[in-house]
Here is the input.
Amino acid sequence: MKTAFSTKNITAFIAATLALGSITFGVTSRSFFREHRSNKLAASSNKHPSLILWAWERPTDLTFIDRNRIAVAFLARTIHLQGNDVFTRPRLQPLKLPEGVTVVAVARVESDAVKKPELSNEQGSKLVVAITEMASLPNVASIQIDFDATHSERAFYREVIMAVRRHLPKRVGLSITALASWCMDDDWLSDLPIDEAVPMLFRMAADGKEIANRLDGGEDFTSPLCRHSVGISTDEPRQNLSSSRRLYVFSPDPWTASSVRSIMESRK
Here is the structure.
């Protein structure tokens, strides 16, 4: 497998697809259709509020949130790797947000279980484009990649991450979600050019209970990139989370003012 993705190909793909990405992006809030973004948008996720709500693929209205205290990480597109192909599906459900809220565009990357991805140079270049072009979506301050890469996909994923960072504008931050095991003894993240890796402390694998017990016992994540934030779900609450770390929260149910208020109160 070649690991150096073609800059020429990536640049050409971006030029051809930026307009399409902005047209197919299904967001209904008026503020999302501005043609220009403020130069004051933070390039690092350190500028984000301490609470970020994940907004997945369902009709979502978060116009009631306090934009100064809460940011939104929304599923912008799902990217499917199959053979040597890259299939991109844009967000299809409406998303309503308050004007001026900090926004993180999330790309969910999935590998086909039957026709496994070839992980070729060409496929890597296409994936980099599919992720990088999200930076052109209005009001996006940061991009987050959500990919549960297997061990055999890690070298490919590392090259994708590095290429994405090279092609993103400096003002746009970059983060990834991370299996909790990646942040402990299986650390392969520490030298990646990202702002943070968000440990996912819900829907954990077989070693989840052991990792949870270690964290409850006072251990911290091995990877420094995993020490800035954590990710939880409303139906799997966790105790003793550090208030100094950014909290990403997923909800299997539609967000309501009540459910958001409960999270805010638990952070006090």
Summary: Residues 6-43 have pLDDT under 50 and may be disordered. The two ends are 49 Å apart (CA to CA).
